[in-house]
Specification:
With 331 residues, the chain is α/β, with parallel strands linked by helices. The protein contains 13 helices and eleven strands. The protein folds into two domains: 155 residues, Rossmann fold, CATH 3.40.50; 140 residues, Isocitrate/Isopropylmalate dehydrogenase-like (Rossmann fold), CATH 3.40.50.
């Protein structure tokens, strides 16, 4: 059984309700059809029912819940909730009602905040900034969380590295140039996410263009300090750095370049020094190695809201919904 098949099975065993606010997008509707057919999750589609029906020609969405925000039974309650959450930022009932009825992302995250859904997936149409802004404003961070970050779950075919070719690449979707302290938090959060989703011990490599002092630069120093902070704060996590990519995942290279490291050559969680390298890295692996790439998956929110690439397929959406459902099972 492949990784995503296992995730789907786990989602089916503890079915959750996931909101899809981009119901005007055909890929979203195709994904909803598959999710409902396979019993992966219960689905809420946000939008006008007639328009959704026209866009869903040839699909069976009879088991989906369709909510038109302007006619929603709980609109008044959601207005009150949004005002309470954002009143310090000048939110009024009039602004809240306009936001909820005209911006499906905000209606979706408010549903999740109210406990009427377990998670949301969007990003096929909306930008990452739009998706994460709505989530951070309404869902907010989980208790004790210092940083919200994003990762891609990569499944590389015919790969002997990582966990049978499965990796987390972080941060590949949110934090542009994290500090040492932030990199340490990204490493710890990614280890937790890997353990939850892959059900295998996480082995975290803090990546750099240097391995154990082979190069000298302020960018290297940042990763060295991040490694020190993470090891001190999270001694239970198998984590090391700074490591070049080959030293992190190839056993022979790891043994040569970092012989005293219990991470080198065995890493399955790769923490990149900045968003540029993380984003470029996952796309190289996705396109050249023909890997499955699920994400960006967020970590650190009080309830799961996950983003999609605007170039995603319907199958990608199905996979991220299944991952979101598994995340929701732990909230």
């Amino acid at each position: 059984m492949g990784f995503i098949d296992d995730i789907k099975l786990r989602a089916k065993q503890n079915k959750k309700t996931i909101v899809l606010p981009e119901a005007g997008d055909r890929r979203t509707l195709e994904a909803a059809n598959t999710i409902l057919l396979e019993g992966i999750a219960d689905i809420v589609l946000i939008g006008n029912e007639d328009e959704i029906s026209k866009g869903a020609e040839g699909l069976d969405l009879s088991k989906a819940t369709i909510i038109d925000p302007s006619k929603a039974d709980k609109l008044d309650a959601y207005v009150d909730l949004l005002v309470e959450l954002r009143k310090s930022k000048g939110m009024t009932p009039e602004k809240a009602r306009e936001l909820l009825t005209n911006q499906p992302l905000y209606f979706g995250v408010t549903m999740v905040k109210a406990g009427d859904a377990d998670g949301m997936v969007a990003g096929a149409v909306y930008s990452t900034a739009d998706v994460l802004r709505s989530a951070l404003q309404v869902i907010r961070t989980a208790p004790g969380t210092k940083l919200v970050s994003a990762f891609f779950l990569m499944v590389v075919p015919n790969c002997e590295y990582g966990a049978n070719g499965t990796f987390i690449f972080a941060d590949s979707g949110l934090n542009q140039n994290p500090t040492s302290e932030e990199l340490a938090e990204i490493g710890a959060a990614s280890a937790k996410s890997f353990e939850l989703l892959v059900e295998t011990e996480p082995v975290v490599a803090m990546l750099s263009h240097s391995t154990k002092g082979s190069a000298s630069h302020a960018d290297v120093d940042k990763v060295v300090e991040a490694t020190r902070i993470a090891k001190e704060a999270y001694p239970e996590i198998k984590l090391d750095g700074e490591l070049q990519l080959d030293a992190a995942i190839v056993p022979s290279v790891g043994a040569s370049k970092a012989p005293d490291s219990d991470v080198a050559g065995n890493a399955n969680v790769l923490v990149f020094p900045d968003l540029d390298s993380g984003n470029i890295g996952y796309k190289i692996v996705e396109r050249l190695a023909k890997a499955e790439a699920y994400g960006p998956i967020t970590q650190g929110l009080a309830r799961p809201v996950n983003d999609l690439s605007r170039g995603c397929s319907a199958d990608d959406i199905v996979g991220v919904v299944a991952i979101t459902a598994v995340q929701a099972s732990c909230n």
